[in-house]
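Lab notes, practical 5.
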Amino acid sequence: MAVKSLQRLRDDIRLHYITNEAAAVHRLIDFLDLPDEARAAIAASAAALVSELRRADSPGVMETFLSEYGLSTDEGVALMCLAEALLRVPDETTMDALISDKIAPADWSKHLGHSASPLVNASTWGLMLTGKVVHPRGDAALDVVGQLRRLVKRVGEPVIRTAVAQSMKILGHQFVLGRNIQEAMARARGMEAKGYSYSYDMLGEAARTAADAQRYFMAYSKAISSISENSQSTDIRMNPGISVKLSALHPRYEYAQRDRVLHELVPRLSSLVFQAKNANMGFNIDAEEADRLDLSLDIIEAVLASPDLKGWDGFGVVVQAYGPRASYVLDWLHALARKHNRKIMVRLVKGAYWDTEIKLAQVMGYDGYPVFTRKAATDVSYLACAKKLLNMTDHIYPQFATHNAHSIAAVLQMADGVEDFEFQRLHGMGEGLHDLVMKQHRNRCRIYAPVGVHEDLLAYLVRRLLENGANSSFVNQVLDEKVPPEQVVRDPVSTLLGYPAIRNDRIPLPADLYAPVRRNSAGINFPNPSVLKAFDKARQPFATAGWQAAPLIGGKAAKGKAHDVRNPSDRRDIVGSCVDATAEQVAEAVRNAVAASPAWRKTPEEERATLLERVADLYEENRIELMALLSREAGKSLLDGISEVREAADFCRYYAHQMRTDPRLAGQEGRGVFICISPWNFPLAIFTGQIAAALVGGNTVIAKPAEQTPLIAARAVALMREAGIPDEVLQLLPGDGAVVGAALVSHPEIAGVCFTGSTETAQRIARAMADNADPEAPLIAETGGLNAMIVDSSALPEQAVRDIVASAFQSAGQRCSALRVLYVQEDVADKVIRMLDGAMSELKIGNPWDISVDVGPVIDAEAKEMIEAHSARLEAAGQLIRKLPLPAAADDGCFVAPAAYRIDGIDALEREIFGPILHVVSFRAEEVNAVVGRINATGYGLTMGLHTRVDTRVQEVCDRAHVGNLYVNRNQIGAVVGVQPFGGEGLSGTGPKAGGPLYLRRFMRRSGGDQSAPAIKVSVSAGKATDRVLTAATLTAAKAAEAAQGLWDRREDRAQLLKKLAARLDKDVAAAFTATLDAAADYSPQPTDLTGPTGESNRLSLHGRGVILCAGEDAVRLAALALLTGNAVLLADVSASLAALVTEMSKEKGLSGLVTRLDAALTPALAQEMPHLAALALTPGQYDLGAYRRALAGRDGAIVPLIVGAEMWEPYVAERALCIDTTASGGNTRLLAANEA
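Output from the prediction step:
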């Protein structure tokens, strides 16, 4: 067989980044080629090791610990979460909250005395007592705890803090060899005397800043100098070594920064390598995430090429067996060693980032996974790679890192003696097992030993617990007497072939993540150089291409004078030309749309849904062109570009499925002509989402794109027409908002407007519609926000800063959801701000056509001028934290320097600054709830971020925050269709949420027009429009209603209570009230879990809008829906028979003022002036709806909707989406459980 070149071998690695899992596993099994008798001998040998280990006096701390606290227990997860956060928390307030949060709910008593280890028993006793002290329980059987509780009451909470912190430090001591290299080496002497050698690992997170990278570099260098004193043997295999993480040595160690990383990291790493060579010690490059593998191999190849390393056999590489590329990496490493005539060390491990890789592939929409989906497949891969390594010992020294008796027995079975390899284990794990093996076989064994302070241990410890804590893990089961030894060490080949399929069907492929609702949109695996190269080649023709846009009316492009559309990154680049629409063309487009409306409304729902799915397919087929256009016209980066194409496709598929399957849409039809006005910051995704919802709902559409981005809109419409959307059903009118947009929203024949843009423009649209359109024509508006993030002292600063930078500066800060104001707890503010400063300095500014660019331009010169004026004011006041310099090339574009400023509070900002500007505020630990109150007081309610490890704090913030989307322990941008439905409340929008379950219905009406239930006839005064009746009593009622509404909204027994109250009302009123509640049986206050990527919790909850004024003959039904959905109610123009409702409701604790009957008659003036008003609900046919629509539009502040009738409950609610990264502290235990399959 011909020897493959290094490049061909690299191509093989890239080809198998993501591959057919079943085919990959069968190749490995075929290569392993172990006869049945050999497999049986391995299993028998391994079972004997397990039996002997169970008889041993000291099997090992980790094994004992996990046999008691598996990840299947709440206590096991709580311990991980507590260990991950406690030691870094500097303030007592947060420390107490964290201890109470993690310990008190867990049932520690059931573990007491179960373990044979004194350490584990002592920990259980201590944690159990702490749990009782924090949350005392009235259990008479626990009188001893009562005694201790009284003791703690005397000595105070510091005792609890000290005891738990000390327990965590003791636990850390078991898994960290020393706080520094000297302490670790001194402690290592005991095991070295038994024949073990060591490889030291300096603990810490990946570098976020250049200062971090320098600090880690110095730590490695000093450690090598210290270790060299113990490197006395001429045989390098007998000397201690060191393990190095490349991500610790460079703050941007990622594939997109390849050129920079190679330029800066190769010399830095080489100096450490030469230092290790001179000490004749081993130097291992640790394995990291899959998207860094190819970059790591580039660096390894560059460093190892130095002729100065000749004669040194200590260079080492870690290879993770859980990915299908592992065996190909071994082939490449062997060829590389052979080329340089060196011997290199290869440490084979199972893999440390499995859950992360699964989640990332799902989020990014990859074709599959870069890791195997069954643990048994990883075990098979490990054995096949071990066999390969044992056949490569001419140029490779294998190092088999494992705590699995079967893997050890298999290596011993396949090896020819023990001279050419070594085993490895982690400090604190596998002691008993490896002691037995060394005693029996006289083999070499090296201990991988973490070194560092306990604060740095925590992420490492959680990772080790996750790797070994799954219920099927050998380490978890080895001491469990209920599991027979033969079961613990079962043959992975037989296990794997015994499954119905090789691939784990409990872990859906990324494309099937949302099945059967829709296919997940396809991403692009940019970390694979082969994929990126092919993408660049396919994109190149669009670098200089030109596009055209013009009014499209009835399928015909209008003629006219065109103007250039320029690239905001480089104003010299003319992307295309656009002809703007005229007032006459607006009128013509409306006439066409009105004429086409009846036929389109009658088009079968299935046909409309199928057309949307064709649009999604065409978007994906043309994604490279669309991404190129997004980059050149809108200044989008590659990652933002693919995300936007995917979101647009997701909208189409999501709404298509909803149209087919949502029972609430039965009996609904399109309203007529919808005007869709979209923004420049998401010129494809939002443009498409608006149109798709309107079209599939049976409406004809006139689309008005932002004047800055007409070309992408024109290309999208062309693809929609290609998919089969009729010409007369969808028309495009590019042009100036003041001309085209204003004319469209003022047209009397429109049936609704869907708008995304500024709050001020939305308010103008509301007034124009009130003056001209049908009063019941909906305005669906998603507007701006003063979005905040709160970071408390329990948060991991590295994670928080990562998410702060992404939320504030990705897309040059030009996202509706972008972070504007960071609130950071004062106890950690200096550290977080220092890290933020350093992380900002690593950002690259430039033309986003280049994949390495992080921050592109703002959209135009006007935006640039406004943002820079704001920055100048803050700088003049001395509030600057960091402002990045702009590169010289920025002079040709609309670039704004990313910057961070200190301010006193969010109220210092009068409006949203739509660009890469972050404002920072510090707060005291006890002020979290007050901070949420200040954020609410701005009136905006779009997104909020929260970084904390205290679960109860998440709930508190969730209960108080009036925002549409709350993100916990992750960034606050990038809402996914159907997973995090997007939209705000208050000044941030009207609802319903785009990409959510209530969105489509707002585009539709009941077939045949209004068919609401007959009203209860009473005689009321309609009042006069000129009356001004905002009396003191009315103001008091409004204020009391607002106060009561928050408590009422949090109650989940509203339906039951309302039905109980109805029984005490007048007979006719009670019948109408109860019938309305029964008709809304599909409403539920319970949050809905939404399907999303693994490692996330996504929930959508329904809340009351606030205070709703219900008026007229049908007010009883209006009030029933308003109360059911969590609102407070003011009643106007109602009969005396409803007074009982007010009386009965006021008898309920805390609900006084929730329902009030106004003495004054309802007038438009009252509707316009009433404070705290969230909606006005009127009886159909009784009021001049136009007058009240105009009155509401004349209000300052948030857009207040006019609700007509009690036909459906949806207009009465505000939706709130909560997304929690559940892996941030405790890891993805649920996914690990799935891996057992």
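Observations recorded by the TA: Residues 132-155, 1010-1027 have pLDDT under 50 and may be disordered. The two ends are 39 Å apart (CA to CA).
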